[in-house]
Amino acid sequence: MDPSAQGRGAEVCDLRDAAAERAFREPFLTAVLVATFLVSVVLLLASLLPYVGPHSYILRELSMLMLGAALMMFLHYRVLRRYFVREWCHAVEQTLEPCLDDLKHSLSESVEGLVPGIEHVIVPSVQTLLQETQGDINTIRDSVATAVDVMVNFSGVLRGAETSGIVSIFPKRHTERGEKSAMDAIMEEMRAESGSIRFMGITLGDYFLDRGQLHSAFEGVLQAGKSTGLNVKALIVDPECEALRQRARWEAGEEFGTAPMFYRSTTFIDTDGAARTAPHLCEKYADVLEVRMYGQAPMGFLVLTSRCAFWESYNYAARGGNVPVLQIQAGTELYDLYKKHFDRIWKASKPLPQ
Question: Is the pLDDT of residue 24 over 50?
């Protein structure tokens, strides 16, 4: 038998002996033994009395029985109980130890059999997880690198815009960026201005033509300007100039660059309409509005107020309104350049036909 098992069996038996001794020392058991002994002594003494007579024999027998019972009880707890406890422990050890050894051996074999199965399941799973994690890490790393590149490039754009005095960029003239479009921002600046507004384009049809999107709002600015001392100067292209013919040729087609097709192009029709409508507005708001015509090739749509400028460059790929609009802070070099651009064209311009 395993020595450790024998030691455990001995410990169990010692515990049983200690329990038996504690039971023997219990007050109730002690009182029973003492009472039994006293009763036997009393019965023995009573049998010796002369007046008991023939009952003395019975008393002595009872006394001996009580004394014997007390002695048997004492021997049971002090000797026999310990003996039987040890034999019981030994029998239990002999019976259970082989079973425990078999159980231990079976469990060991089962565990050893499970290890390859666990490795077969877990190792591929761990490898797959590591590969997926590595793939995720690479994806995250590439995303971070891309984001960093975008931020670096964007920071360069911001530095360039800040240096140039550009405070905002609108995707297109009529396209909303967030809550408002460039046209909304321009009208806000016009309404807030009480000093001077300078703007130029090809037809300025949004402002001068009756069907223009901002015609009513623009008239509201002119009406309010009567009481604030507002001065508005506007430049439109001369409908009869060669620059507008070239513009029509590129916008509408080769055949629209010469008469009579030129006069059928929307380029001429819109510009001529603005030139015919503008005198009426100038007469109506004589103290506020002044409009002149220029013959140079139109380069862009420009609005100047005392606080900022809006610039949209023209191209020959399409009509205006299809490129970003820059909002430029007043007092910057770029703002001053566009202000000089307007002033020079204004000096070379001519008045509207009467």
Answer: no
